[in-house]
Design a protein that fits this description.
Strand content: under 5%
Length: about 90
């Protein structure tokens, strides 16, 4: 492989994003020298939403969460994640 091209300097993050959307990084980096890294304390970004649930369902979720000694919103995230994974792997959507 030939010598990688020099990465230009960018004035803004938007300019950098536009550049990388149009260019192949393999022309600018030698991925053969890349090392695997881990970010164990990195938390995924979250977004606050409003969700209307029937009172009975919310009460059941809170009861289940209490039995497992976890916050009910954490249980809801776990249930949603499991449901989405199941539907995606079964090809339901």
């Amino acid at each position: 492989m030939s010598r990688p091209k020099k990465i230009p300097k960018f004035k803004t993050a938007a300019a950098e994003k536009a550049f990388w959307l149009k260019h192949d990084s393999s022309e600018y980096l030698d991925w053969g020298k890349a090392k695997s890294v881990s970010f164990p304390n990195l938390k995924p970004s979250t977004k606050t939403i409003s969700l209307r649930l029937p009172e009975g369902l919310l009460c059941e979720i809170k009861t289940l969460a209490n039995r497992q000694d976890i916050p009910y919103q954490s249980l809801m995230k776990m249930l949603l994640t499991k449901g989405v994974d199941t539907m995606l792997h079964r090809g339901a959507i």
